[in-house]
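Protocol step 6 of 9: fold each sequence in the batch and record its structure tokens directly after the sequence line. For illustration, a two-sequence batch is reproduced in full.

Sequence one:
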Amino acid sequence: MLDRLDTQLLDALQRDSTLSMAELGARVGLSATPCWKRIKRLEEAGLIERRVAIVNRQAVGLPVTVFVSIRAGQHDEQWLTRFAAVVSALPEVQEFHRMSGDVDYLLKVVTTSIEGYDRFYKKLIGLADMAGVSSAFSMEQIKSTTALPLLFL
């Protein structure tokens, strides 16, 4: 179970993982060594999966975001296993969800342009039998965060 200090540490780390142990400790009222020990424990428990840099996709030439809804061509375990493997390997796919309702899968895809998406689409439809694929282009990103609302738990 997470206590208040664990939650505060996780909140601070997910907003800025470059903070030193001294800076993190100061934010939550710990010295560097106990802070480091808590973070190691959180990593070992799997609460911290990894630390990454969030790259500005516009600045690196990936300004287009597309949400792709997929209806499965089949509904058996073998199809799902193969489909999950091939779609997960596509670098343009940022998120991949199995859904309830009329759509079986939802992908969040980033790409260079509409033409870039068309190349991705042609690759995608060649990978597996699908009953339907529908694409919605994001016109504007209003909010994007990787920070979980931990302080509200």
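Sequence two, same batch, same settings:
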Amino acid sequence: MRQRIKSIPPMLLSPFRKCGRGGRSIFRLTILDRYILRQFLGTYVLATLLFLAVIAMFDITEKLDAFLTAPLSETLFDYFASFLPYFANQLSPLFVFIAVIFFTSKLAGNSEIIAILSSGVSYKRLLRPYMIGAAILAALTFLLSNYIIPPTNVARIAYTNKYVRNKSVESGANIQLMASPGNVVYMSRFENYNKTAYRFSMDHFSDKTITSRLTARTARYDSTRQYHWRLNDYMIRDFNGMQESVRRGTTLDTVIPIEPKDFLISANDQETLTTPQLNEYIKKQRMRGVANIKAFEIERERRYAATAAAFILTLIGMSLSSKKVKGGMGLNIGIGLALSFSYILFSTVTSSLAINGLTTPFIAMEIPNVVYLLIGIWLFRRVSR
């Protein structure tokens, strides 16, 4: 392989090749680009499969009682069919970094980097196939995290709530939120098992003045129809200046634009929404005055930050491992693992800042990217010299 790379003609190492009528230059991947890209993506797939095998083994050990209790079909198709892609996508920056470190250290150890540079290829030119590979993985990560994996998380979370540990919120007390502009809903208590609210009331305001109040002993949500509520023992009071009119009844079917998931927010609910659904949910909850939506905002920003991380960690990995060192590949892999885990830890720490209100979710999730981008630029300039 070493002799093959040494013998590559300079024209093949050039980022452009002459072809077509009139000798116009069009973009084409060279032999060098395809070789590095193949090594990059192949190593990434191998690293992902190896790590997922280890993660699955530990997960089986931890949840063995649940797996023995649950039907095998639910374990395979509801849990693992979502669990493995979910963790592969969550740890994608780690796998990208390890892949770059591993195969670049191997190239450097075989003196193939020296042969490439001796052919007149600069470090900037050598970086191009790495960035192409990072772009492919970033696009895959973006597609999975924003659109494909969230719907599959619904079955996984339902499985863990049923067989492992139930983290879903089944009731709420003293619930108050804005159903729509000018309409404020209050519930003394809501029980999710029967979809019933107790001591229900809804006030309608016009120009900051209350114009009517609807109260009911109970209000039951009809899950078969969106926003459909049935009120029992209701009373409607209409206010017109100093005058008041009262209407009473036994039952009233009405449409109120709220549903239980708007105020019963469970852990990991944000992982079940695609990005368009997240944007709509956040916008709707802000309008209603719901306070506990930080997790949803952080999840949205995390998805975008993870996409950019592929480029940043590829730059750092290539800069670290493109030079031959005495410690060999093991030293580079050790450094790579330490840096990648520090990136994940740093992201966790900064997300807690957003949860505590010390910064916005966008800034919290972009701080690690900015810091590690500066590290990557410094390392790349250093190795280029």
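Proceed to step 7 once all outputs are recorded. Observation for sequence two: The mean pLDDT is 86.
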